[in-house]
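Example S7 (structure tokens).
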């Protein structure tokens, strides 16, 4: 029947509400969890969670191995698969404690959603990310036009990002009082700045005094 709310939908809403209110997850994290649990549903043919079987863990892993990134069309990365399995495992643990599901799902069933040791090792291996050198940044900075105030603004923003390495979301919410040019640092106040995971206050030191004069000049 069109518009009918299925038991799975209600259950997922309860779980997301639990994550938000009890664990303090933000909206971005909730969206990822919802998508990952939907991956589980897709892997088992949209079955009711009351029909849970530990075999669902194997089916989800097979499903993820065959899945493709919607944007690139490439296979899912090891880190994406690992994160998806972790989110679904947490959901199964929660499900095992819910009324009406305790007789069908046990806490030990969540272990069937563990990633393989090889897959987890690959997913968590730190790899150096390619990045431009200061010389390359200076070259790009020098090639940027500055014919009007908008181009000057863009140039200043580019210099600021290179100087600090601050995340885009944080840069968009910083205020002038958070920037201390005299001491060469910025203060990311988590109460006012969109820092990653809303961490406590921290300072970022401006790493290149060679770019600092360029940045100041574009602000004049």
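Recovered sequence:
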């Amino acid at each position: 029947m069109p518009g009918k709310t299925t038991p799975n939908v209600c259950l997922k809403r309860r779980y997301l509400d639990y994550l938000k209110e009890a664990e303090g997850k933000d909206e971005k994290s909730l969206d990822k969890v919802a998508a990952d649990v939907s991956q589980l549903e897709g892997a088992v043919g949209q079955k009711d969670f009351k029909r849970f079987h530990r075999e669902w863990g194997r089916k989800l892993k097979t499903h993820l191995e065959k899945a493709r990134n919607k944007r690139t069309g490439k296979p899912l990365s090891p880190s994406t698969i690992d994160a998806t399995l972790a989110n679904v495992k947490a959901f199964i643990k929660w499900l095992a404690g819910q009324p009406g599901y305790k007789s069908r799902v046990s806490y030990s069933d969540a272990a069937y959603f563990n990633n393989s040791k090889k897959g987890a090792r690959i997913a968590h291996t730190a790899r150096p990310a390619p990045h431009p050198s200061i010389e390359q940044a200076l070259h790009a900075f020098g090639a940027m036009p500055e014919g009007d105030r908008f181009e000057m603004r863009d140039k200043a923003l580019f210099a600021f990002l290179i100087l600090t390495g601050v995340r885009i979301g944080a840069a968009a919410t910083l205020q002038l009082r958070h920037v201390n040019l005299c001491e060469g640092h910025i203060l990311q106040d988590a109460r006012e700045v969109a820092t990653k995971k809303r961490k406590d206050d921290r300072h970022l030191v401006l790493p290149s005094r060679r770019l600092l004069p360029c940045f100041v000049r574009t602000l004049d």
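Notes on this example. The mean pLDDT is 86.
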